[in-house]
Amino acid sequence: MVGDKEITKLIKTEIVRQQWTLDLIPSENIVSPAVLEALGSSLTNKYSEGYPSRRYYGGNEVIDKIEILARERARKVFRLGKNWSVNVQPYSGSPANFAVYFALLNPGEKLMGMSLPFGGHLTHGWKASATGKFWNSVQYGVGRDGYIDYGEVRKIAKKEKPKIIVCGATTYSRVIDFKKFRKIADEVGAYLMVDMAHIAGLIAAGAHPSPFPHADVVTTTTHKTLRGPRGAIIFSKDAKIAAAIDKAVFPGLQGGPHDNQTAAIAVALGEALKLSFKKYGRQIVKNAKVLARELQQIGLEIVSGGTDNHLMLVDLTNSGISGREAQDKLEEVGIIVNRNMIPYDTRSPFDPSGIRIGTPSVTTRGMKEKEMKKIAGLVYDALIGGYSADIAKRVKALCKKFPIYANN
Ligand SMILES: Cc1ncc(COP(=O)(O)O)c(C=O)c1O
What CA–CA distance (Å, rounded) separates 125 from 141? Predict the structure, then answer.
């Protein structure tokens, strides 16, 4: 790369870190060189406030085509008819969710989402987020078994009568029953918004049921299992809602869209249309199931007893170490995870009782069930024994066999 020496050096160092560590953070992935190319293109030079053929700046012929292509591909990837409107402009997942609330709720009106310590995202109405300050937020969690308790969700909804019910999560390893959420929303006259950020790639691949037959609005990030650039998409079924959401994104919350990001989203969606992506999405789930089972067999506890998707939550309560210690011990040997609250956690968010583990990134590298067994052994050795040169060497050997840019 030509240019800034300090930044070039730091980027190279980060690429080396990514190559020689196992990334088990469920929200991360490895984008293709084609996605990187679009992100780093001259499209970043352009301003294009507005929407295709309704721009506030000249010179947007090419940008219009790119944005229209991104929308069309998004519809194809999720098997949607023309009745679904698509907005590909949100800068990221949090602004996308904010835009939906901004479009559909007046200040102070009520939204209901999953609470952060139980697996929801900050933007599902958590009190530290603007979404929990500007709107009246009520929250649901999961039962002691780690599953969403739909009876409890219904009870809260009937009592609180929210205007929007949000489902979708950041740390939930089980299939979400969108049909049940729809029924609850209908009973209380609420909109149903599904935030499928984490599982979008699985839905695209047919490895998780689709929310589209049930939701009024669906939001997603584009950079998790969907394996695109950082960004977001909002889908809405009703034309009036779509118009309100378009207005909320621009001019409500944002100025010019990031056209290089839009192009990179279109590239990623093009990749998601391929048969190889279907295999990829299914392999993510197969890998997660094997990894969860192996970790259980060696004595670690998994919240809800397993996984149906790309992630699992390890409950370390009975293992004598905290989530933070576990994260540090794993990082020392080159395994990257994030510490995480478990449902009903009695420890603090800064040093909680769990770690969250996911398979999207290692699956992109081409790893399969056999490697998941190896990873389970490495995780166990690192947690029990702490740092040893031998564990770190075994991690490096695995990373060497699966270079980050060999498979996409
Ligand atoms: C379910 C869910 N929604 C939204 C977001 C927010 O995305 P971003 O970090 O791009 O703002 C996340 C991020 O982790 C998420 O997990």
Answer: 12
Confidence (pLDDT) at 387? 75
pLDDT confidence tier of residue 257, bands split at 50, 70 and 90? very high
Its pTM stands at 0.97
Which CATH entry fits the domain spanning 5-30+280-401: 3.90.930.60, 3.90.1150.10, 3.40.50.1820, 1.10.3720.10? Answer: 3.90.1150.10
Question: Which pLDDT band, with edges at 50, 70 and 90, does 386 fall under?
Answer: confident
Binding site membership of 27 for ligand 1 (Cβ less than 6 Å): yes
Pick from 135, 150, 73: nearest CA to 100: 135
Ligand 1 atom nearest 232 alpha carbon? 10
Q: Are strands 85-87 and 110-114 parallel, antiparallel or unpaired?
A: unpaired
Cα(408)–Cα(405) distance, integer angstroms: 6
Q: How far apart are CA 328 and CA 322, in angstroms?
A: 10
Catalytic residues: 47, 49, 195, 221, 224, 230
Assigned CATH topology for domain 34-272: Aspartate Aminotransferase; domain 2 (3.40.640)
Domain ranges of the chain: 5-30+280-401, 34-272
Give me the mean pLDDT over the 201-222 stretch. 98
Ligand 1 atom nearest 92 alpha carbon: 10
Query: Would you say 372 and 312 are in contact if contact means Cβ atoms under 8 Å apart?
Result: no
Query: Has residue 408 got a pLDDT over 90?
Result: no
